[in-house]
Specification:
Family: Belongs to the ABC transporter superfamily.
Number of strands: 14
Helix content: 25-40%
Bound molecules: adenosine-5'-triphosphate
InterPro entries: AAA+_ATPase, ABC_transporter-like_ATP-bd, ABC_transporter-like_CS, ABC_transporter_ATP-binding, DrrA1/2-like_C, P-loop_NTPase
Radius of gyration: 23 Å
Largest sheet: 6 strands, mixed
Order of helices and strands: EEEHEEEHHHEHEHEEHEEEHEH
Keywords: ATP-binding, Nucleotide-binding, Transport
Distance between the termini: 35 Å
Organism: Aquibacillus koreensis
Protein name: ABC transporter ATP-binding protein
Strand order of the largest sheet: 6-7-8-3-9-10
Shape: globular
């Protein structure tokens, strides 16, 4: 069960919001779909969901055109949260579950399971407007997964949540993946993406600028991070050849170096100058890669 986008383009008048996008969302994985503000993520999600028509290109599910009349295999958590404030949580979820073709008893059974899991059992009979923002988000998450979709699209699922609730939702996302759901997930928080996604795509100006397996993306980026903690001034390192980035910290510095071989020159340069507590070479973070490849927004 894979979702495949082939040369998908979306134009709004003369403006191209998504430009010849070709990606494949692997089965039963969490796929990170990233990009600066305005890069075209939500527009792509809306095309996958059939809410917007693509200007050209093709979207298929399991090698067949997506059949939106039977779209109950898709779940969607939109970036703009939208529940009916005056409805009770149970009525809200029953209503949405019925739209997905579920029986009322099955909906209630699933809902109780989720409310318990998210530690909000007491909200079953509460009106949505009585809930905090974070708890409303849990309810909206439940509404996106109540029908056990095979493909789940999550637009910024953790925004506005406290760390405890982020962990709770993250674990739910991982469990859904392990139970067989393919998940497409957008976030501006790179550490969440690093933790959850094996494959990802970074969009810039409607085009994918980085695409593939996270491990391979990091390896092929070339540049590495070098962390040095020492009891002497390390500022001189920023002028050494091969050093392309420098960040000062109270306990030392983080260098971005052109390739891992350069670390040996740096080691030679600091030896004998004083006490070195840490000298550690690391793969670039996804944040480093994102900033270099997509560090600008794209608005009309
Ligand atoms: N209905 C529309 N009409 C005209 N332009 C639009 C429309 N929807 C989106 N756009 C434009 O398309 C571009 C991509 O928008 P989109 O919402 O897909 O970005 P995004 O990557 O989801 O951004 P963000 O991270 O801020 O949510 C933006 O420049 C936006 O202004």
């Amino acid at each position: 069960m894979t979702l495949k986008l082939t040369n998908v383009t979306k134009k709004f008048g003369s403006f191209t919001a998504v430009d010849q996008l070709s990606i494949e969302i692997p089965e039963q994985q969490i796929f990170g779909f990233l990009g600066a503000n305005g890069a075209g993520k939500t527009t792509t999600f809306r095309m996958i969901l059939g809410l917007l028509d693509e200007s050209s290109g093709d979207i298929s599910w399991n090698n067949e055109p997506v059949d939106y009349s039977k779209s109950n295999y898709i779940g969607y958590l939109p970036e703009e949260r939208g529940l009916y404030p005056k409805l009770k949580v149970s009525d809200q979820i029953v209503y949405l579950g019925r739209l997905r073709g579920m029986k009322k008893n099955d909906i209630l059974q699933e809902l109780k399971k989720w409310l318990e899991r998210f530690k909000v059992e007491d909200y079953f009979d509460k009106k949505v407007e009585e809930l905090s923002k974070g708890n409303q988000q849990k309810i909206q998450f439940i509404s996106a997964v109540i029908h056990k979709p095979k493909l789940l699209i999550l637009d910024e699922p953790f925004s506005g949540l406290d760390p405890v609730n982020v962990e709770m939702l993250k674990q739910a996302v991982v469990d859904l993946k392990n139970e067989g759901t393919s998940i497409v997930f957008s976030s501006h928080r790179m550490e969440h993406v690093e933790e959850l996604c094996e494959h990802l795509c970074i969009m810039q100006r409607g085009k994918p600028v980085v695409h593939g397996a996270l491990k391979e993306i990091k390896r092929s980026f070339g540049k590495k991070n070098l962390f040095i903690h020492a009891d002497f001034d390390l500022n001189f390192l920023k002028d050494l050849p091969g050093v392309v980035g420098f960040k000062d910290f109270p306990e030392g510095c983080k260098l971005q170096i052109e390739s891992e071989e350069k670390s040996q020159d740096i080691l030679t340069a600091i030896q004998g100058k004083g006490f070195i507590r840490r000298f550690e070479l690391e793969e670039p973070s996804l944040n480093d890669i994102f900033i270099e490849k997509a560090g600008e927004s794209y608005e009309q």
